[in-house]
Amino acid sequence: MTLFPTKKVIEVKDLHVHFYTYAGVVKAISGVSFEIYEGETFCLVGETGCGKSVTSRALTRLIESPGRIVKGRIIFYRDSGPVDIMTLSEEELREIRGREIAYIFQDPTAALDPLYTVGYQIAETMVAHRTADWKEAFRKAINILKSVIMPDPERRIKNYPHELSGGMRQRVVIGVSLSNKPKLLIADEPTTNLDVTIQAQILDLLRKLKKNEQMTLLLITHNMGVVAEMCTRVAVMYAGKIVEIGPVMEVFKDPKHPYTKGLLKAVPNPLGKIERLESISGTVPNLIYPPPGCRFHPRCPYMMEVCKSKEPPMVNLGEGRKVACWLYVK
């Protein structure tokens, strides 16, 4: 029995992203590889600064100076056939961004232009991608606000962003991202700046919209509760690398990588009783001078000599489980 469909939407191969700063070269992403399948909710989870958002932005080459994608392939499976995002021109990329791959960023205030009404901003996305003219786009904008459960959408399309609450602004951002019915929706910490009750509403809204629109969702978060509630599969990131990938319930029940085990011991686990929450000792490494070998070895309770000098390979454990750890290398 397969846990997810076999038709790929996007595939990332050996992605490396560096930021060139005065202090040195920050190796933000080093050798990240994963694939996302049609109809699933795939989650990237990890501590702040581990590279989740950089990875998501790299998928459509939204890395700005001083950052640069220095290596890797990003294969996007369009209806017309697979294309390598890294080989496309800016004009070709604009056809994909916002239309076939859309983003929900974590700060809705920064994502919306304060000088234009929310109706205009939703309509503009459709006009820019030639999926509707202005008249039709404004009519569709009302329906889009209805679909994201915006109260009184006929009146709200005339509002400016500052006239809306944080939860309403996030609904507008979701509406903008859905306006062209994208194949892949990337939600980068979509509930970070919202209070708990609004967070639950936004997550429930995303779940319903994904089902109704038959979309594929990439969710970026550091909240393990959100992972358990929303996702099909999860990739755990640490210091610019993916250390474990697997079906969500399997990872929660039986985490393989020492970092994943520590992460789950640090938060209440909905699938298991924990007597006492524990923190992970040590600190996140400096990615200008990352430690040799396994980047987690200075904090790992299972550290062996090989961990200090050699980077562990990604080991396929079967049943959709993969882990980058010397404990599983035969």
Describe the 3D structure.
The protein is of the alpha/beta class. The protein has a single domain (8-100, 182-328), classed as P-loop containing nucleotide triphosphate hydrolases (Rossmann fold), CATH 3.40.50. The chain is built from eleven helices and twelve strands. An eight-stranded mixed sheet has the order 6-7-8-3-9-10-12-11, sandwiched between helices. A four-stranded antiparallel sheet has the order 2-1-4-5, covered by helices on one side. Helix 8 links the parallel strand 7 (184-188) and strand 8 (216-221). Helix 4 packs across helix 5, helix 4 (118-128) packs parallel to helix 7 and helix 5 crosses helix 7 (166-178). The longest helix is centred in the middle third of the chain and has 18 residues, at 196-213. The chain is globular and about 65 Å long. The mean pLDDT is 89.
